[in-house]
Amino acid sequence: MIHTNKLTKHFKNKKETVEAVKGVDIDISPGELVAFLGPNGAGKSTTLRMLTTLLSPTSGSARVAGVDVVADPAGVRSRIGYIGQGNGGGHSYRVMDELVMQGRFYGMNGAEAHDRARELLITMDLQELEKRTVVKLSGGQRRRMDVALGLMHSPQLLFLDEPSTGMDPQNRANLWDHIMRMRVEHGTTIVMTTHYLDEADSMSERVIVIDHGEIIADDTAARLKSNLAGDLLAVEVPLDSAQAARAVLGRAAADGDLDESMQNGTARFRVRLPDGARLAPGLLKALDAAGAPVTSLELNPPTLDDVFLELTGRSLREGVDV
Ligand SMILES: Nc1ncnc2c1ncn2[C@@H]1O[C@H](COP(=O)(O)OP(=O)(O)OP(=O)(O)O)[C@@H](O)[C@H]1O
């Protein structure tokens, strides 16, 4: 569905050249749900804008839905839906009319556009609002309508640029319910960008992590987490057994790193384990046998932020509103 070869975008300002996307190779198959995840300025939107023909690449190539983005941008656009960041300006048309107009724009006749609009109003739970003018919709309703607009011409491939930024948790969950339903009903391939770690984790099947214009990881969220981060185990032992605990835990640590702190007669250690749930019981026994009885234990599965931290030494949360 998407194939890129060393796709690159440089922006030239007066004094400097910004290398926003540095030769990325991306392959996405039909039906996949893929999230581009990365910090501010990583190059996610620029990549998406090249794939949707809104920007032309500096070099490299991209085929989207079987069509080259440079040779036939109109062909790409007719096959994809694109829902950009934020809402456009206010619209004084009614919801139904706006959808029908979009269908007409894509060459549908009036009856086809009407039927398709009615179908999408149901999928996106907007049927009660078909006569309301677009400016009067709430933020969440407006975003669902944006998605409906992007789907009017039944694209095989839908691009969502930060679909839920600025929404409250309830509206985000609601939007995702609708997107997932649409996906099941129409088998649409979805490519999205997001800042929200939990969203990339729970909604997408595959996460492409972008940093400084390069792809630094590409896998399922589950595999990224288990391969790169591991579970985080925190144990407390009495202070006088800290040395024994340090030796046992140091051997078990995935990366040899032990984080330790002392407080109120207790030593607290934090260590990453590749498969914590399976290893923790044996480790408790080993600690006990070494004379370091565990007084408290906490086991946390890794997050995509841990993955990013492991890959870059930085947290994705830095400077990001999550
Ligand atoms: N039109 C432009 N002119 C100059 N530089 C640009 C332009 N558009 C983007 N950039 C720069 O390219 C880099 C990548 O920007 P991009 O918008 O792709 O990042 P992003 O990962 O989508 O970030 P965000 O999550 O903040 O939307 C940034 O350094 C940005 O400042």
UniProtKB/TrEMBL annotation:
It is a peripheral membrane protein. It is found in: Cell membrane. It comes from the Bacteria. InterPro entries: AAA+_ATPase, ABC_transporter-like_ATP-bd, ABC_transporter-like_CS, ABC_transporter_ATP-binding, DrrA1/2-like_C, P-loop_NTPase. One of its GO terms (molecular function) is ATP binding. Residues 2-237 form the ABC transporter domain. Keywords: Antibiotic resistance, ATP-binding, Nucleotide-binding, Transport. This is ATP-binding cassette domain-containing protein. It comes from Arthrobacter sulfonylureivorans.
